[in-house]
Structures are given as structure tokens and as C-alpha cells.
Amino acid sequence: MRITVMTPDEQILSLDVDPNETVENLKALLEVESMVPLQQQKLLYNGREMKNSEKLSALGVKDEDLIMMVSGAAPSSSAPTDDLSFNPDGSAVNPGAFQQHIRRDPNLIGQLFQADPELAQAVVGNDLNKLQEILRLRHQRRAEMRRQEDDELALLHADPFDVEAQKKIEAAIRQKGIDENWAAALEYNPEAFARVVMLYVDMEVNGVPLKAFVDSGAQSTIISKSCAERCGLLRLLDQRYKGIAHGVGQSEILGRIHVAQIKIGNIFYHCSFLVLDSPNMEFLFGLDMLRKHQCIIDLKENVLRVGGGEVSVPFLQEKDIPSRFLDEERYSKQASSSGAAPTTGTTENKTNLQSGGQSSGGARGDVTPGSDFEAKVAKLVELGFAREMVVEALKLCDGNEEQAAGILFGGF
């Protein structure tokens, strides 16, 4: 096994030793490596002095453990021996002395940054509580590894015909595979453990600048009531389109704003959106408008291309996104998601966006959605129109696909 020894002259030695080696033989090896006479060595493990006759395995020393070497001579007043020992929980008895002991040698700090960057940062920092917490965590981690090794060893000697033992062996094998997969991910795919920042771009809605959350998994473009009011659009709210948005959870649809002007880059576009009573979500640029304006989410260049590429705007970096927006994607899924869509009125259809409003000429909704109706909707949606607009046009035309297309191209 490999152990790490920190010497009095602030060197870090990495040694390969046998677990059954005695402490006296370890000191002899350290005498060669550190030039410290065996009689002047005092080795501390978890705050306890290691006796010459004891074996490393009997003391509980495991792979990658840390052992402190202090001089056996009379301790100096500036750094008493006890100050460099450890408590049973792994924390330093005197964290300030432990910190200064390592800080005095820049080479030692450099080696520690390579071996354990997190611990090195705590040593050079000013937060002793954080340093103690890291030392405790290291101790707990080593203790957990020891327990796992002991359990595995016990299972190896378990009765092969014991059903419960076999279940534990199976669980241990499965957990080992998971741990190996996790270790491989840390090495080959470390970015998977980092936070993924969602996609935001700068836009203007009716002349008001805001940061839009781009979400291709949301069926509809959504604006909150407060944001619509700030943009001066609440007066255009059509309350005939009230309903409930079903997704991960649900939110109330207050109505619909049929058309408004948005500015992306230097180009103006027409946009329609649902208005939700969702204070945690300001503006979501959904799949309906992404398709209508032929947008391309270019993650290689980290830009949103609109109009087939006529304008490109960069996605915002995390530092440019207000902290209150960082959890916005969670709330957006309560409004709309790719697997569920808003339903309105009394219609309980959770896979299609249905408008429950009525026109001045009478009630809409005489066309019952079916496979033929859905095929017509799919055709018109492929032309770049929003699904809800297609559904409304088909209803107005009693399912006539050509008439509905004429209405849509004519500016429905």
C-alpha cells in the first residue's frame, strides 16, 4: 500500500510499504528517505503516537493515509508536538499550528496543490473552520473505505450457501461497478458533475429589454403577467384563452396575447405568447416561435441563429444571468413541457393545445381531434406555424386544410 508521510522539515514523502510492516521498520525506511535519525522520529497517526513494536495494519493504517512525523527532541515553543496531532474525528488539535506548519514551505504547498487542491486551498485560506471540516471529511472518507473493505473481506469468507450473504455479495459487486463507473466519469467526463447553465439571450419585447429563456422543450412561448404588464402588453390580453397549463405541475393560463413585436439582435419579429400567472418565470421563448422564425440553437458557436441565420445572438454566460433566473427552468416546466401541453376551458386533453375561447359567431370546437385532424395539424405545423394557430384555423374552416392554410398565410 502507499502512504504519505509529512516530515518535520515540511517534506511530503510517498512510500510503498507492506501493511504488516512494523513501525520500527517504517522509521528505518524514513531515516533513509528523510535523513532524520530513527531515534529522533515520532510518528503520529490520527493523533496517536505509533509504537515501534506495532504493525501498520494493527493500527488501522490504510492505502493513501497520512502520517505525521515530528522530531522526538524537545519541542520548540513555536510549534509544540501536540499542536500537530489529530483528534479522533480527524480534525487537527491545533488547526492554526497545523496550517502554519505547512505554510512555511512554498515547495510543500506546491506539492499539496498537486496531491489535494481542495485541502491546499483551505491551508492557504483564512477559514480554519473550513480546514477542520475538510480534515474531518477526509477522515470520514478513509473510515468509510475501511468499512467497505472490511465488509468485502467478511463476504469473501461468508458461507456460499447463505442466501443473505449472497445477496450482500451481489449488492457489493453492483456497488463496486457503480463506484468504478463514477471514478471513470470523474476522469473522462468531469464536466458532467458541473452545473449546466440554461440558455438565455438578450431580447426586447415591445421595446422593453429582458433576458429570454430559450427552451425548445416547451411547446408554447410564455410571458408572465408581471412581465407583460412591464412591457405594456397586458391591455392586449385575450381572456377567452384562459386555462390550465399542464407540465411538471400546473399553472394558470390567464389568456393569450396574439401578436407583439420582439427584437432579436437588430431585427424585429412578430411573436404571440400565452400569459401565465407565474411570478418565478418571466419570459420563455418556446418551440412554437423557434419553429416559426426558423431558429437554430448552435451550441458549437454558443449562439441562437434566427431567421435561418439572418441574425445571431450569443447565449448569456452565467455571470450575466440574474441569480433569480438560475432556477427559472424548473418553474418553466410547470408551465409547459414537451410531454404535456396547456389545456383550456373544460376540455381535458393533455396532449394537444386546445383553445376554449368563443368567437363572436358562436362556439368553436366543432371539429373533434382525431388521427386525420392530427395529420392536418402536423402538415401545417411543418410550414412554420404555431400549433395553437393551426388548430384554431382548422376549427374555423371545419377541418378544411387548404382553407386553413390560406388563413394562416394571410396573417391569421
From TrEMBL:
Compositionally biased region (Low complexity): 335-347
Domain UBA: 370-411
Region described as Disordered: 73-97, 332-368
Keyword Protease: yes
GO molecular function, one term: aspartic-type endopeptidase activity
Keyword Aminoacyl-tRNA synthetase: no
Residue span, Ubiquitin-like domain: 1-70
Any single Gene Ontology cellular-component annotation: cytoplasm
Protein's cellular compartments: Cytoplasm
InterPro entries xref list: Ddi1/2_HDD, DDI1_N, Peptidase_aspartic_DDI1-type, Peptidase_aspartic_dom_sf, UBA, UBA-like_sf, Ubiquitin-like_dom, Ubiquitin-like_domsf
GO terms (BP aspect): protein transport; proteolysis
Superkingdom assignment: Eukaryota
CDD domains in the record: RP_DDI, UBA_scDdi1_like, Ubl_Ddi1_like
Keywords per UniProt: Aspartyl protease, Cytoplasm, Hydrolase, Protease, Protein transport, Transport
Chief subcellular location: cytoplasm
Xref: Pfam families: Asp_protease, Ddi2_HDD, UBA, ubiquitin
Family stated for the protein in its record: Belongs to the DDI1 family.
PANTHER family hit by this protein: ASPARTYL PROTEASE DDI-RELATED, AT13091P
Name listed for the protein in its UniProt record: Ubiquitin
Naturally occurring in which organism (per UniProt): Corchorus capsularis
Organism lineage string: Eukaryota, Viridiplantae, Streptophyta, Embryophyta, Tracheophyta
